UniProtKB/TrEMBL annotation:
It comes from the Bacteria. It comes from Paractinoplanes atraurantiacus. It is a multi-pass membrane protein. Signal peptide: none annotated. One of its GO terms (cellular component) is plasma membrane. The keyword Transferase does not apply. This is Probable membrane transporter protein. Its main location: membrane. Belongs to the 4-toluene sulfonate uptake permease (TSUP) (TC 2.A.102) family. It is found in: Cell membrane; Membrane. Keywords: Cell membrane, Membrane, Transmembrane, Transmembrane helix.
Length: 317
């Protein structure tokens, strides 16, 4: 019972962060399941089955708050589903001994990307509001979907920063569109895992616990996305993913580091993590007015539909 309550709380916390940051439900939940001894394929399958419900509720909530660009959802979601199914069948055919450290490496890489991206970079100043093209979103969706299945998470960590880095979609609509399109990815990945490992290897009680926590948090997160700075949340979540998966790798058979080495790594991570959070808060306060002005300008551009057509290049500045 204690384990189920913990899973529900993790599902709630992970969805609260995912819905307000556009990432981290999968990597956070999968990391916990791996830590308690679940096989990589079963952990990823459990998370993706729970995500069918959480992403559905999250998508509806984001839509209600005006956080969704439906063109982006379709252009990235369908290719993402294809990549997710392929990744699920691939992971299902790997042995646990091979897959566990491999998954931790993928999660660690995603955590580093999230941590660095959101700690060091702000909003773009000249491209926000311009349409996103299919030739960009389709390959991104395939890669993000594949990574999401094989890493137990990654749709948000790959998709959200890439779209934000393009500078064409404001943060709240990036997050809302990524969360909404993730429903298609979760369905496809779940089908892939069921085909690959079968129903008997999935603990549906754990799925239900994660689902309940996520469904409770989804509407709250959709509201919070307008109020919590992504830069700060990115530093928090990225640091947590880095710490947890560094621990998993250092204790794995691949490395099996002695206690002194492990504790040194942990200490360094804690110090860098604390400094990054402090820096993120300071940068948010420093650039708050500028960020709000950029977002307001982009919203006005979209509201008047005064954007260059996707097939017609914008005139040079």
């Amino acid at each position: 019972m204690r384990k189920l309550l913990l899973l529900a709380l993790v599902g709630l916390g992970a969805q609260l962060v995912d819905g307000s940051l556009g990432m981290a439900y999968g990597v956070t939940s999968t990391t916990l399941l791996l830590a308690i001894g679940t096989s990589p394929a079963a952990a990823s399958a459990t998370v993706h089955l729970a995500e069918i419900g959480t992403t559905l509720v999250s998508g509806v909530s984001h839509w209600k708050f005006g956080n969704v660009d439906w063109k982006v959802v379709l252009k990235i979601g369908v290719p993402g589903a294809i990549g997710a199914f392929a990744g699920a069948t691939f992971l299902s055919n790997l042995s646990t001994e091979t897959a566990a450290p491999l998954m931790s490496i993928i999660l660690l890489a995603l955590g580093l990307y999230v941590f660095i991206r959101f700690t060091t970079q702000g909003l773009p100043k000249d491209r926000l509001g311009k349409p996103l093209r299919k030739r960009f979103l389709a390959p991104l969706g395939i890669v993000a979907g594949f990574v999401d299945s094989t890493g137990g998470g990654g749709w948000g960590p790959v998709g959200t920063p890439a779209i934000l880095a393009s500078g064409r979609l404001e943060p709240r609509k990036t997050i809302g569109s990524i969360d909404t399109s993730e429903f298609l990815v979760a369905v496809a990945a779940s089908l892939g895992f069921i085909v690959g490992i079968g129903n008997e290897n999935i603990n549906y009680t754990w799925v239900l616990a994660l689902l309940i926590g996520g469904v409770i948090a989804a509407p709250i997160a959709a509201w919070l996305v307008r109020h919590i700075p992504p830069r700060v949340l990115g530093s928090l979540v990225g640091g947590l993913i880095i710490l947890t998966n560094t621990r998993t790798l250092l204790r794995s058979d691949w490395i099996d580091a002695p206690d002194g080495v492990r504790y040194t790594f942990y200490a360094v991570i804690y110090v860098v993590w604390a400094a990054a959070i402090a820096y993120s808060v300071a940068q948010y306060r420093k650039h708050r007015a500028e960020d709000e002005a950029i977002i307001a300008e982009a919203e006005a551009l979209v509201a008047t539909d005064d954007r260059p057509d996707e097939k017609t290049p914008a005139p040079a500045a």
